[in-house]
Please model this.
Amino acid sequence: MGIATFCVLMVSLLLVGISSLFVMNIEILLGSIENKNEIVLFLKDDVTEDKIPEAQESISMLPNIVYVKYYPKETALENYIAQMKEYEEVFDSLKDDNPLPDAFNIKIEDTSKITETVDALSEFSFTEKVKAPTEFAQILTRLRKVVFVVSVSLLSALILVSLIMISNSTRASVYARRREINIMKYVGATNSFIRMPFFFEGLFTGFVSGLGAYAVTYYGYNALMDIIANNISFWEIIGVSEPLPFSEVQFMMLGVYLCIGAVIGALGSVISTTKHLQV
Amino acid sequence: MVELKNVCVAYNKGHNVINGINIHIDDGDFTFIVGASGAGKSTLIKLLLKEVDACDGTVMVNGYNLRTLKKNRVPKFRRTIGVVFQDFRLIPSMTVYENIAFVLRVINAPRSYIKKRVSYVIGLVGLQNKMKSYPNELSGGEQQRVALARALVNDPKLLIADEPTGNVDPELSQEIVGLLKAINQCGTTVVMVTHEHELVKHFGGRLININQGTVIYDDVIDGEAESLTDDSI
Model:
């Protein structure tokens, strides 16, 4: 087991790591888009101001609710005026008899349960109308599922390919020592005794490859983030939050790299020795 | 002790390489096994080492019934046997001492015992001053003596020598068989497969001739015996 095995394993681990970071960033992107979509509950005209805290409390008690913000009709009108200054005079005339309803802006936790939440909100006696991005939420939910399935399949395939590649590249080193293995079998060595050095060699190579892959990911990802931060922010253009900082996942990435590297290295070596143990 | 009763071995269904063979070898015997190429000699050796399985009959070696022996018990069984091959099968990256000691390391023998025992067997084959040499620094005869020492180091009950003189010159062949005879004198059962008729004639002993997977001759012959006929070899 030499430099070739180390390189193959490191590249395989890098592919796994890069794919994971990509998926994590997609998740952040989806989450950020999701956060921008709130449910709006319009209140009936007969709901007086003293009933607002009670209504707010009732909504907060529902499951799947993150926050409920009161949005009075006066604020709504001011926002309209601010947004459409050319019609300021028209809106000003409405100040005495504001036709807009009072409302609550509601943020939910799980968009896949938006329909149930909307149904529950509609049942309140103070509810005039509920406006929710139901279709958009459904698209997001489907997209999430697709991203999950694709990422799990991709990672599984990459791990399997790594295992096959490692098994093949360690086969050469095992083949070089087949005479030794053969003699060991004739003098009464057990299979576990023969496998032990190959197992530890694989484990060590996997571990070192994991460290190498981590170093490349660390410097590569941070360099990429620097480029994004120092230039026109793509993330700002599409109006979502910033990408995942590496510091947030560095220990998890290191752990995953070391574990997957060590397991694949050791397992690949053990698989390659099996053929030569049939004496 | 080796006991083969009506043993058949087949690599392909319907074609027996060993065909109903019956051989009984007592503890302490020295037995030559001869036969033409393809007669079944190598398969017989593989059978005795449980490298191949019999499809019929009884195979008893050193008290182990090889037909019922479980896979995980094979290493323990093999520790009762020493094997010498025609091509020596020494590990090139190990010295003479290490090549022999490694057999004892495999069975987790204590370090002090390994040192004592390896030095003893190296002395037995006369290679005391080659202990630190590597196989490629040795002659064919010396390499075969190392292989012999390796086969003896764990004090086997049965020593199987598969054409041990095949890669050495005639003079060294006699020396190696002489060593095997000396080992046999100490009580180890020796089974030697060979195609060198002159050696068999010279040393004498029990001779088993195999042809097409069956025993066609099994008798004791005298060394340099004139009674040896074309039927026996």
Observations:
- Residues 225-233 of chain B have pLDDT under 50 and may be disordered.
- Chain B has seven helices and ten strands.
- The two ends of chain B are 24 Å apart (CA to CA).
